[in-house]
Amino acid sequence: MKKGIGKTIKLRSLGKGILLGLLVLNLIFISGCGQTASAPSENKSQTVELKLAHFFPATHPAEKELIQPWAKEIETATEGRVKITSYPGQTLSQADAIYDGVINGISDLGLSCFSYTRGSFPVLEVFELPGIKYVNSKAASKVAWEGIKQINPEEVQDTKLMMVFTTGPGDLYTKEPVRELKDLKGLEIRATGLSAKSLTALGALPVAMAQSEAYESLSKGVVKGNLGPVEVLQGWKQAEVTKYVTFTPFLYNNLFYITMNHDKWNSLDPKDQKAIEAVNERFFEDVAMGLWDKQNESAIKYAVNEKGMETITLSQEEQDHWISLVKPIQKDFVAQMNQKGLKGQEILDKVINLADQYNKEFQ
User: Fold this and answer.
1) Whole-prediction pTM
2) Cβ(108)–Cβ(261) under 8 Å?
3) 105 and 261 in contact (C-beta within 8 Å)?
């Protein structure tokens, strides 16, 4: 009997030992799972790597003074959670394919011109219409960014716009002086898009070609001039092959964008989105909207002081005459908008009023 009792006690003790061991193992397992589960929360803020495509060379102010500092500031503002790598010089997408590349995820961000895909952004052509004067790129950029916010066109809803900015007014650079409209008649001028329509209305002969081809064409006399921002005189060395600058602040304005893939944008933490938008607004105001003014100021000094170019300012009467001839292009825009069920005249009037407002502010 005592032996049986002893045996039972030993079995109970053994059972308690096994139970205790199982409890300890269970605690170790739970503890281990707890540590494993907590690891991701500690590394939760992983860096989101974003690729930005654009067509400017790596030495251009658009890359050095805007994109690189802007990307660095976004990385700082998001505490390293968002990092942007720039791919300049069309290394990721061709200039005219950058917007679609952003939509399709070839790049996460893109910088290019809306005019490179003419017809895809019909409403935004209002910011490049001839006959609307801009005193500089600050005024033109402010008009474009504020106008887009107010108009909110459907054509830019497929990406997240970071900012837009412009070259500001473009001028005529010619081998022969253009002081009056009659001097422009029959003159071959390098131009594309709306600029070509404007020159046709003025009696010139527009010749379409890339900016990179203009120097050689001017030097060989294939064309007698160019229409574009003053910066091409220095940046593209066209002051070497032209002699006269005729100021035409009502003929040209080119609109750029920086935009982001919607899915990538929506995947970011809301606090990072807010931080990025604050950086966008600051860089638009401090850098982007005046980027071409800096280049234009440097270029005109170079063209006049170092290359001896002569500047020509049209009389007010002459300007009014030229503007009257390109006004039908504005009417065409209104008609096209109306055909699309949009209020064309209202859109045009909004931009004209904004131009009046910001021309005064940035004169």
Assistant:
1) 0.84
2) yes
3) yes
